Structure formats: C-alpha cells, structure tokens
C-alpha cells in the first residue's frame, strides 16, 4: 500500500488562517532585517578577502591564548572562530602584500609556530582571496540573487497574471530574508556556498509556487461561480500531497547530510533545510492567500459550472 503523508480529501482552511500567516511572515521578515542590520553577516573569506586556515586540534584550545599566540607571530591581527566543533578552529588573517610567495611565507610561519606549541594539530585547508576578487564576488553574488528574483517576477507575470507575479516575489523575498537572518543570528560563515544555497532555495520555492498557482488558475476557469477563497483552499489542498511529499523527501536527505556530512558543507546544508521549511510554509500559507489581498477574482459566468456543485473538497467557512 503506497505511503500517504496527506490523506485523501484533505480539507484545510488555509484562507481562514491567512491573517495569522501574514502576521507571522511580517514578524519573521522584520526580525531578520533587524538582525542583518544590527549583527550583520559573518562574511567568509570569499567576500572580505584575506587568509583563512582551518586547524584541527587534539583537544579544544583556549581561544584567548591561541589568539594572543597568533598575533605575536607578526602576521597581522587574527580572528578566531570555532568551526563545527570546539577542536576545529578557523584562523582568519589579513592578506599579506605581494604575490603568492608572501602568502606561503605567512602560512609557513603560522604552521611552524603552532606545531611547536600544540601537539598533533592538523592544518586541514588554507584559502586566500584578494580584496579585488572578494569585491567582485560580492557584486556577482548580489547580481545573481537580484536577477533571479527579477526573472521569477517576469516569468510568473507572463505565465499567469501580474498578481501571481507579485505574490510569488513577496513570498520569495520572505524566504531569502529569513534565511539570511538565520545566518545573522547564528553567525555561521556566509560564503559563496551559501549564495548557491539561496539560489537553490529560490528555484525550489518557485517550482512549488508555480504548481499551486497553475492549479489555482485552472480552478478559476473550472469553477466560475465559486468564491475565490474556496477556490484557493481547494487548489492548495489538491496540491498538498505533492508539496508535502517533495519537501519531506528533500528534508530527509538534507538532515542526514546535516548530521553526518563534513563541516565544510554544514552551512550550505543548514541553509537548504531552513529554506525548504520556510519555502514550503510561504507557498502554502502566504503566496496563495495573498492573491485575495491583491484582488484576484473568480471568472464570473452566466450559469454556474456544474462541476462546482460536485467539488467535495471545498472548505466551508
């Protein structure tokens, strides 16, 4: 017997809950914006430039003592951060002037000093990005996210109607802002991997929203005398099994990666998990119900479509 996460003939009044959903969406968006403005993002070396070394210790080091030791090497002021666990530390240093040889000298000095004072340490990776390159990456990342949102708006506008485009973009902006607010709250490193995760979240959320919008448009034509709230409830309930099954399947794989995967993809996986949860929520509760606020109406017809009377899965309010 096939697994059904959502029973047949599910009747949930999503439109009834739209004001609660709108209030929650507004609170999450404003809170995330406040976190971004006050705490900011912990930008990785991709965006700020500099030299980053990931060092694994046999036991958790005292961060203040480690910071003092690195600063006394004479390679610039350091910034330390735990990465995944207390025994793995990211050491961030300013990029030395000169070519790659200067970078290698700084790395060698740090490695020599730390190996002499800490037993069994392992330098897992070393990354360096110049200020010019980091500036280009910031610009390209902003362009990527901005253009993706623009093309989403244009696609949904021409594929459906203008109010579908607005509702979709509002929901996507919420998804992106809340995801970035999570990184401002947790101070997980925000690098190019997270930009890739944000773009993936936009693509997933768009796919989910287009499926629901397409069903709403079909039902607008099919049930011409039905109230718009009933049409939206019917459409969301009809697509709910597909939405839930897709989200649960993806989350199962991502949670496994989050728990068992390497630390280097922890931020990417965390962003994907949060993005899918937030994207599913906004698709079901926000994007579709926002159409009522935007003024979408059912297509009135002289006589009621006979199929409307047989629509058993309409939520009565």
Helix amount: 55-70%
Largest sheet: 4 strands, antiparallel
- SSE order: HEHEHEEHEHHEHHHH
Give the number of DSSP strands.
Answer: 6
β-sheet strand percentage: 5-15%
Q: Write down the Rg.
A: 25 Å
CATH superfamily of the largest domain: Multidrug efflux transporter AcrB transmembrane domain
Number of helices: 10
Provide the structure class.
alpha+beta
**Mean pLDDT over the residues:** 80
Number of domains: 2
Quaternary state reads single chain
Strand order of the largest sheet: 3-4-2-5
- The CATH class of the largest domain turns out to be Mainly Alpha
What is the fold named in CATH at topology level of the largest domain? Multidrug efflux transporter AcrB transmembrane fold
CATH architecture of the largest domain: Up-down Bundle
pLDDT < 50 runs, ≥5 residues: 299-317
Task: Please give the alpha-carbon distance between the first and last residues.
Answer: 34 Å
Shape: elongated
What does this structure look like?
The protein is of the alpha+beta class. It folds into two domains: 15-43 and 134-304, Up-down Bundle (Multidrug efflux transporter AcrB transmembrane fold); 50-129, 2-Layer Sandwich (Alpha-Beta Plaits). 64% of the residues lie in helices and 10% in strands. It is built from ten helices and six strands, in the order αβαβαββαβααβαααα. The chain has helices at 18-38, 45-48, 63-71, 100-117, 131-159, 162-186, 192-222, 228-260, 266-294, 306-309, and strands at 42-43, 50-56, 79-83, 85-93, 122-129, 189-190. The strands form two sheets. A four-stranded antiparallel sheet has the order 3-4-2-5. A hairpin with a 1-residue loop joins β3 (79-83) and β4 (85-93). α6 packs antiparallel against α7 (192-222) and α7 packs antiparallel against α8 (228-260). The protein is elongated. The protein starts with 17 loop residues before the first helix and ends in an 8-residue tail after the last helix.
């Amino acid at each position: 017997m096939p697994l059904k996460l959502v029973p047949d003939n599910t009747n949930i009044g999503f439109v009834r809950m739209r004001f609660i959903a709108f209030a929650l969406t507004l609170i999450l968006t404003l809170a995330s914006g406040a976190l971004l403005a006050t705490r900011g993002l912990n930008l990785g070396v991709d965006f700020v430039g500099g030299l980053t070394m990931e060092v694994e210790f046999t036991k958790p080091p005292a961060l203040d003592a480690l910071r003092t030791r690195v600063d006394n090497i004479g390679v610039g002021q350091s910034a330390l951060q735990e990465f995944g666990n207390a025994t793995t530390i990211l050491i961030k240093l300013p990029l030395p002037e000169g070519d790659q040889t200067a970078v290698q000298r700084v790395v060698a000095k740090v490695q020599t000093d730390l190996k002499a004072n800490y037993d069994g340490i392992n330098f897992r990776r070393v990354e360096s990005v110049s200020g010019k390159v980091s500036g280009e990456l910031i610009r390209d990342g902003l362009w990527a996210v901005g253009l993706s949102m623009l093309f989403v708006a244009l696609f949904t506008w021409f594929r459906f109607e203008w109010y579908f485009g607005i509702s979709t973009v509002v929901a996507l902006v919420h998804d992106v802002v809340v995801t970035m607010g999570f990184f401002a709250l947790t101070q997980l490193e925000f690098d190019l991997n997270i930009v890739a995760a944000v773009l993936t979240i936009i693509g997933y959320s768009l796919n989910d929203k287009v499926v629901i919008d397409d069903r709403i448009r079909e039902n607008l034509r099919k049930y011409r005398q039905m109230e718009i709230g009933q049409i939206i409830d019917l459409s969301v309930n009809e697509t709910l099994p597909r939405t839930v099954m897709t989200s649960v399947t993806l989350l199962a794989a991502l949670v496994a990666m989050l728990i068992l995967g390497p630390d280097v993809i922890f931020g990417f996986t965390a962003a994907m998990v949060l993005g899918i949860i937030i994207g599913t929520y906004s698709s079901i509760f926000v994007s579709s119900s926002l159409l009522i606020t935007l003024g979408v109406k059912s297509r009135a017809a002289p006589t009621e479509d006979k199929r409307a009377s047989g629509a058993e899965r309409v939520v009565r309010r």
